[in-house]
Design a protein that fits this description.
Elements lengths: L1 H22 L6 H21 L1 E4 L4 E4 L1 H4 L5 H6 L2 H22 L3 H13 L2 H17 L4 H12 L2 H12 L1 H4 L5 H16 L9 H18 L6 H21 L22 H24 L3 H12 L1 H19 L15 H30 L17 H5 L5
Antiparallel strand pairs: 1-2
Length: 401
């Protein structure tokens, strides 16, 4: 009896995976979806691993194991995958804009559709946390704790704002060589670090820094990154320059922000973060063919398709899932790896055990709020919808500026 009942769910899952696989056009580049899924999951796991909410008796405050255990900096190299997200975003947006132009769709309508899909799920996050913050303050919660929670919950929104701005600028960025925004980042860092310029100059890099992988995505659309040599040049060059910047120019080894550190590579982006992103983009380009082969398997493709279908829900709610777990766990007292100071490897081991619980709470958030990402439910899935190939004339007319 046990074998029969356990086999049925597996059979049902395989059948569902086969249906998703059959509904996907053969012309779809599954590597694009695979890279996007890896980027989303990398950000989620990275936040869950390096962000701690420490209970000190009077409230909660954030801490990071990277501050107490700097030798764990390589963890940030594996899970800070935002450059890959912008690479894919630039590729998909430029390809989508070209296809819309071929169909005669005005820029305004194309942009409204893309931004609508991007920001529709945000409404639920803002509404829930506005109510939650008000209730916490009315019940006498510590103001510092409320500020910490709201800041963590809404921190993913900066990414959406930058992506929205780059998406709006797609017609320009589709023609821009990636070296131009890279040069801007280089000069900004020379001014603020080398010549003692004002720190606010760094915020110029918020747009310029992420425009580098975004315009690389546009170059991918133009067919300029198809040869493996491009991937190897980006990977080797980005790695070498990043290592030199960390070893000799004083840039932090961690590719994420560390509380209390004098310089953050991510807030705002530094030259080291951008060159590290170039290395990541090179690796992503080299992995494309392997991903295409791996995602021919229906079960693997179905998993990637589901992540892509609800990517924004996963991205927007993963911090809330972690905080919900932390708040629930307080009912049992200060638990290791959840409420304790991340100052030892024992905390790391305990935190790894909490990851499935975070995923469970994220599943609850998904069940409650994934409808906001799908809208009215009548749109066809973007995961299995066909991407029309660009015409030869469209590609031919694109030039660098």
């Amino acid at each position: 009896m046990t074998d029969v009942t356990s086999a049925y769910p597996r059979g049902a899952l395989r059948a569902a995976a086969a249906r998703i696989d059959a509904a996907t056009p053969a012309s779809r580049d599954r590597a694009v979806d695979g890279l996007r899924a890896l980027a989303v999951l990398g950000v989620v796991l990275g936040h869950w691993l390096v962000t701690a909410l420490v209970s000190d008796g009077g409230g909660l405050h954030t801490a990071s194991p990277l501050r107490h255990l700097p030798r764990l900096a390589p963890v940030s190299w594996a899970f800070q995958t935002l450059a890959v997200f912008f690479l894919v975003g630039g590729h998909v947006a430029t390809r989508g804009r070209a296809a819309a132009r071929d169909r005669g769709t005005p820029y305004r309508r194309w942009l409204a559709a893309r931004l609508g899909r991007l920001f529709r799920p945000v409404v639920a996050v803002l509404a829930l946390w506005a109510v939650t913050a008000a209730l916490l303050l009315l019940t006498g919660a510590d103001h510092g704790t409320v500020h910490t929670l709201v800041k963590l919950a809404l921190s993913p929104l900066w990414f959406l704002l930058v992506l929205a701005a780059l998406t709006a600028a797609t017609p320009l960025l589709a023609r821009l060589h990636p070296l131009w925004p890279l040069v801007v980042v280089l000069h900004v860092d020379l001014l603020r670090f080398g010549l003692g310029g004002p720190s606010w100059l760094g915020w110029v890099n918020l747009a310029a820094g992420w425009a580098v992988p975004y315009t690389l995505g546009a170059a991918w659309t133009r067919g300029e990154l198809e040869h493996r040599r491009a991937g190897w040049v980006l990977l080797a060059g980005g790695t070498a320059v990043t290592a030199a910047l960390v070893a000799w120019a004083g840039y932090p080894a961690s590719m994420v922000g560390v509380p209390g550190a004098p310089v953050s590579n991510l807030n705002p982006p530094t030259l080291a973060a951008v060159t590290f992103g170039l290395a990541q983009c090179g690796l992503a380009l080299l992995l494309r063919e392997r991903l295409r082969r791996a995602l021919r398997r229906p079960t693997a493709w179905a998993a990637v398709a589901v992540v892509n279908l609800f990517a924004m829900t996963i991205f927007l709610w993963h911090q809330t899932a972690m905080m919900a777990t932390t708040a629930t766990g307080l009912l049992a007292g200060r638990l290791p790896g959840l409420h304790t100071l991340p100052d030892g490897l024992d905390w790391v081991a305990a935190r790894l055990l909490w990851l499935p619980v975070f995923a469970l709470f994220l599943g609850v958030c998904w069940a409650a709020f994934h409808g906001f990402e799908r809208g009215d439910g009548r749109r066809r899935s973007r995961v299995v919808r066909r991407h029309r190939p660009r015409s030869r004339a469209t590609t031919k007319g694109v030039r660098h500026v």
